[in-house]
Input
Amino acid sequence: MRAYAVRLGALLILFFWIDAFAFAQTPEGDADQYSVRVSAFWLRSSPTVSIEAAGQNGFISFDRDFAFREYSTFLGRLDWKFTRKNHLYFTSAPFSQSNEVVLNRTITFRGNTYFTGATARGQLQATVYAPGYQYDILRGKRGHLGIAAQLNIFHTTGKISAAAQVTGAGNHQAAASSSASLLAPIPVGGPEFRLYLLKDRLFINGNGFGMYFLGYGNYYSTTDYLGVHVSKYLSINGGYAIGSHLRVNNSANRVGVDLVQKGPIAGIEVSF
Output
């Protein structure tokens, strides 16, 4: 049912755009004429992160085991529109968090054991770099509708460390440090649009990217926001993003990652 609703919504949006743009496909009618656009967003992220090191009996849910909470991070995009309908762009989003807790379960990760009651620190770094290309199928005085393809390069590292100690239950915790890393290039594609509601002052912008890899994993993301132009070159924006939902399955020699970053966003956009 959910998949049907998504497809129906996509069709309705497409039909709306075809109707809106049918008689507005002239360069003079473009609502957002620019060559370079820089977007910067603050993201209040609510992370969900699990890492599994294949063959090491280690499955770590960082958000639960180490009480990861909401935190602030950054989303950035550089867009070069080198012709009226063609774009080259680059986006990046760094995610980094750490927390020290008293473990409520025994964890074995990368050959090291961390006992219940031991004080341990969990650290996560997950950065995505994404070069991409976009072609605007429709472009006119009401905005644009484009199709984009990009390569998401994820570099994810999870680490656990503990000092030598004796737990309340009498277990002798040896000093230990364990880490697992994954570098995953994920090709994804999807639509991107901008719809102007009040001439060139108020607009809605959104995108959706996804890909499913048989036996390997899946990915989807979306960033949607409302923007207000305060000048010809500057807009103020706010909305919501699922910055990344990544699942990479582990095999005998791999690391499995299940990563979600989502939350409200606010930022600015400069076009010239």
About this structure: Residues 98 and 193 are 36 Å apart (CA to CA). Residues 1-5 have pLDDT under 50 and may be disordered. The first strand starts at residue 36 and ends at 45.
